[in-house]
Each structure stands twice: as C-alpha cells, then as structure tokens.
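Hey team,

Filing this mostly as a record. A colleague (T.K.) asked me to run one chain through the structure pipeline before their review meeting, and I want the input and output archived in the tracker in case anyone asks later how it was produced. No errors, nothing strange. Just documentation.

Input sequence:
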Amino acid sequence: MAAKAKKRFFRFPEWTPEWVKLMFRVGYRVGILFLILGLLLSLFYWILARQYDLDKVSEVPASNIIYSDNQTEIAELAGNGRRLVETEEINQLTINALIAREDTNFFDHWGVDPRGLLRATFKNITSGDYKEGASTISMQLTKNTYNNKSKSMHRKLLEIFITLRLESRYEKDEILTHYLNRIYFGSGCYGIEEAAQTYFGVTTKDLTLAQSAMIVGIIRGPHIFSPFNNLEKAMAQRDQVLDRMLHLKSITEEQHDNAMTADIGLIKKSEKKKQKKYTSYSVQAIERHQEQIVDATEIDQGGLKIESTIDIQLLAKVNTDLKRILPQIPADSKTPLQVAVVVLENETGAIKAIVGGRDPVKYPYNRALDSSLELGSAYYPFLYLAALERGKLPIKNQPQVTGRQLDYNDMLAFSKRFGVYSNANEDPAELYRGGVSATPLELATAYSIIRNDGKRAESYLIESIKDLEGKVLFQHQPYDVPAVKPGTASSCRDLLHKAKSYSYNDIAYRYKHLWVISSSDKHTAVFWLGHDLPADIPNKELLAEELSKAMQEWVK
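Output structure:
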C-alpha cells in the first residue's frame, strides 16, 4: 500500500521559481529561530528584572553621610529633609508641561514607547555608542531609582524590563509623583516642591503655567538651565515647553501668549526661602567641597559615604575653648563679634577643624573660607622667608628694613607662591607692613610651609567618596608644590622661635581685628577675631594670650 502523502500547510504555486521557494523556507526557519531566541532573551531579562525591589521606587533616596577622620558619623546631607508632594498637590498645568516636554505618549504606552525605542535602537546600532535613549518618564524613573548610568545595550534592555514591571505595579499618576519627587532641579533643589519654593516661593500646587514650564525646562540640564545660574537659558527652555504645549493643544493660544509675557515671579537668589540650616561650619564646608568634586546626579542619587578629614575631638575642643574665652568679650548687637578658626595638617593639607563664625544658624557666612582679611604683622614671616630665600638678612619685627632688601615685584611673586596675595598694596612700604589680604584658610596653608620643609600642601576636606555599593567615586591625591628651599623654612622657624612649637600673635595695624597663629611640627592653627564691620575689640592683648595658650593644645 502506498505511503500517504504528507499534507502541507502551505503549498507554492507550480510556476513559483525554486530560488523563491528556497528563500522562503530559509527565511521561515530563521524567523522561527529569532523568535525562539527573542523569547529566551525576554525570559532572561524578565527573570533578571524580577530581582529588583519595586518598593524602592517610592522611597526617597538615601541620605549622603559624612564621616570624620576616624569613621564616626558627623552628619547627613542630600535627601535629608527633602520635601515630598502627594499626587493631588501637583496641578494639571505642571503635569501637562511635563508630558509635553518629556513624554508625549505617557498615558498611552506601557512604559516603553515602541516607535521611539526602535528609532533610538537603530541609531545606537549604526553608531555603536548608545547615545540615543528614547527614555519615557517611566524609564527615567527606573534609571534614577536603580542608579543605572551605563550606556550598554545590556543595561538598556534590563531598564526596559524593569520599567515594564514598574508600570504593572504603579498607576500612571503614582509614577509621575514619584518621578517629580525624586529628580534634581538644580541649585540644590531635590524634588519639585523644593524647586517651586526655592525659585518662586510657592508650593507645587500654586505654580503658574509659566513657572511650571520653566521648572520642567530645567530637568534636562539642572545646572545649565537653573534660572539662578543662567536666567536667559532658563527662559528659553520655558518658551520651548510652552511652544510644545501649544502644538499638542494642551493649552490655548491665549494661554500660551499670556504665559510668554507673564512675570515669572523668580525670587532673588539671596532671598531664597529655602536655606540650609547647618549645625556646623565644618559640615557646610564639606558639602561645598563635595559639590565641587562629585557630579550633581551622584549627589541626587544619595547613599554616598563621604570620608572627611575632620577630627571631631579636636573640633569639640576648639568649640569648648571658644565658648570659654569669647564670653569675656561683650558682643555689639549691630556688629556682633565674629571668629574664624582653621586647623590643618602641615604635611598633607588635611583640614582637621574649621569654624566660620559664632553661630552657623544665625550667621551662615563662613569667614574661615570666604573672608579675605588684611594680615598686618601676620605677614612678617613671609617677608622673612623671601629674604632668606634671596640670601638677605631678615630683621625680626622690622618689616620695612627687611622689605627694602627685596624688589617689590619679587616680593609679590613670593606672596603668590605662598598663597597670600589678595588686595596687595601697590606701595612697597605698605605691602611690607602687611598690606595684603588672605582668608584664614589661605593663611594657615601659607604658615604650614614653614613647618613642611618649604612645601605648600593643597588644603582639602574630603578623603574619599563612595557610592551605595562601595564603589570609589573620588579619592584625594596628595598634592604639594615647593614654595621655598627646605633650609629656608628651617631658618625661618629658628628666627620665629627655637622651640618645637611657637605662637605668633598679631593685632592688625589697619583694621580692628586680631590674628593668632600657632604651629607645631604636625599642625598649624589660625584664629581670627573681629567684627564684620570694623569696631574695637576690648582686652585684645589679654585675649590673644589666652587664645595662644589654648591653641598650643590644638596643634599637638
């Protein structure tokens, strides 16, 4: 009995060329293979995506923690005290602006925009650099939540599958709320509520159309488009968002025109309602240093471990001594008596203690870092250093006699080498008498040269910064430059004092303030006392003597 012919699902017409049949059969099998591979790949990334905790989406990023030089926790930074909003507090104007700018199809897609994704994938494959993201708001939330900054195809596929899970877990309005609470809006604003209050002095629900458009415009470049940093660029971004909203018909032409000409209501940077209240000038200074060396997005993600140079036991002693000594000096309510202290390590430049005023909450201005003050006789040791380096005879406490042996421009060059040269007096005689300014930190760094074999070490506050996973984002590298020869520094030490540790007291000759400097082989301490508006300091000689004794303990 003849075998029964196998019935085919699809039969080519008899006139079909063999090469067409062959191509179809090969294509069919390849298509099946790719389908299987696609399903396996999808299964792999779905399993991988399930390892991520979706609860983190609704959590505020972890605070950044500052540690002392012995790993004791000092303070929390970004993420601490962040102002969150509920869904009902976000007005529709802000939502429309966000959708228009960042994700037009947000309410229609399931977390991934297929058309945008295909377009971006094609560009990435052809260019090989994966610059095109096609990120929806949901994908951006995924990226910010799980700190995904890699540009690889693997990370992008993983991001897509996590986003699919996110969309199945959260409602659209929840995603918008978590997104706006999490992202960075520049000028230290984490989340939209801080941005609204910082830039405009209003809550999120009270933002006008123009204000909403400007805030949304900041998202793609928080530093570049912050109105505090560049108002012109911020206004241009506002205009782009409004134009896009008009194109999508989410606002009328009348609303558009009114918003384009409306007063934006930007408050002055100096009048911000949102001001950080520091309990320590050291913490304030560390945060400033952090912002200089770590990208804002890293700070925004939170979870950073910031290892500082601060010696909290020394800092506590400094503050205790100041409280004990300074009450002897009555404070004028109009021009309160202020202080500044810096203690640093001579060899490395590590700042071990810093005080920028009498009260960091009442007087947040950090005088230790920012007040350039005339040095007066505190400048004399640098005259001695210059004279010794040039083979001249330094005469102690006779600055003009010593200075006349030196060329003015040469002395000015030495001052720059030491780091104390601001507002240098053009009259040589006045310069030699101390007519030059420096901050307390600059003066401490300059004095450390005398104890550091003539080398000026770069001062710093942060040893290292690590992320939540322990990855090192920053590690300080010691840096110093020779200022004078080692023998010159040694001779200057002998001239100032032949003991291992010396104190140097000064009442500045022109402005009414007091410098006290103390140094040992290990540390240099600088103390400044004065009024922000010049006024007399009573009992300054007695005060200088008491401070000198206390400072001998600081530099041990």
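Quick notes for T.K.: The radius of gyration is 33 Å. Residues 22 and 28 are 10 Å apart (CA to CA).
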